[in-house]
From TrEMBL:
It comes from Trichococcus ilyis. It comes from the Bacteria. SMART domains: RHOD. This is Rhodanese-related sulfurtransferase. It holds the Pfam family Rhodanese.
């Protein structure tokens, strides 16, 4: 089972401590704008790339609005990864993007 966090909660956490953020939007969406330091891991190829993640780490998962990150969290948590869905996605992010 995975957790969820609201965007305001995530933004406060992001400012205070380094966290691992996985962006599951497609490569072109990521290239257009993403949170600096986010790991690009598109949902469409997640089954092939999930093994690049460390099961001992905690990951926060973001997409555009929260639907794909929820699906990614369901998949990753079923495989034993510690993940938290960032609700609202990058469309709710008020910080800088690169």
């Amino acid at each position: 089972m995975y957790q969820s966090i609201t965007m305001p909660e995530f933004e406060q956490l992001w400012k205070k401590t380094p966290v691992k953020l996985v962006d599951v939007r497609e490569a072109d969406e990521y290239a257009h704008a993403h949170v600096e330091g986010a790991i690009s891991m598109p949902l469409s190829s997640l089954e092939d790339t999930a093994d690049q993640l460390d099961k001992d780490e905690n990951y926060y998962v973001m997409c555009l609005s929260g639907a794909r990150s929820m699906a990614a969290c369901q998949y990753l948590s079923s495989k034993g990864y510690k993940v938290t869905n960032v609700m609202g996605g990058i469309s709710a992010w008020r910080g800088e993007v690169v």
